Batch of 2 targets.
Target 1
Amino acid sequence: MPKILGLIHNCKDCPSYQYYSGGAYECSQVRQRLPANEAIPAWCPLPDHPAVAMVQQANRIRELERRLTKPEPIREPGYDIHGDRLG
Ligand code: SF4
């Protein structure tokens, strides 16, 4: 899974990728050894791309825009959406 704005596709791209010892590398964020294949491990602390917060914000903006352009009709008790009395 790409991380942070799609800039990091493997640990080697990341500024937290640091040499440990004996040819092994570690993640300086969490001080854990990284896989030899440089693939991003499941425990990576970076947010996924697109970040959940970005998706939630985009959905909220879309919902607010929808409400502004197509406001829901106000229903009075006992009347339908056209203002006609029910029953
Ligand atoms: S595991 Fe560490 S080094 Fe790898 S991408 Fe995540 S933060 Fe960067």
Target 2
Amino acid sequence: MKVTETGKAQQETAEKFVHLLRRNKLKVTQPRLSVLQIISAKETAISQPELEKLLGDTVDRVTLYRVLATYEEKGILHKIFDLHGTATYALCSTACDEHHHHDEHVHFICSACNSIYCLDEIKLPKINLPKDYRLQSIGINAVGLCAQCKTVSH
Ligand SMILES: [Zn+2]
Ligand SMILES: [Zn+2]
Ligand SMILES: [Zn+2]
């Protein structure tokens, strides 16, 4: 019984991703689906090396690089740099589309395990720039201990 339910849920997620790709006029390929499946199953942002490990031999490095670049361009994933300057990726909010990201939320970075969480409910402040300045992006990182690391240290 439980197995069937899990299977059904997986199928539904796969269908959701097929729709997402079609909506963005992207061909449905196994590497594209696998990347979405891994990222959506994780609560934290994921780096390209981590993705490579999880995908194993199924997707080569160049393909993965292209998939991530396309997703960022299409407004499916947004990039966050961790404390070591490594790029990590998280799913975008539904408000994002091609060339227009609206991921205006705070990112929490754990200083112990380096995990990055999207805090969607914390919006960024309005920035009033001096005349003739043009804003392209704002990023605010909150650094501290995540719930798991906090528990360990006590
Ligand atoms: Zn976005
Ligand atoms: Zn942590
Ligand atoms: Zn985010």
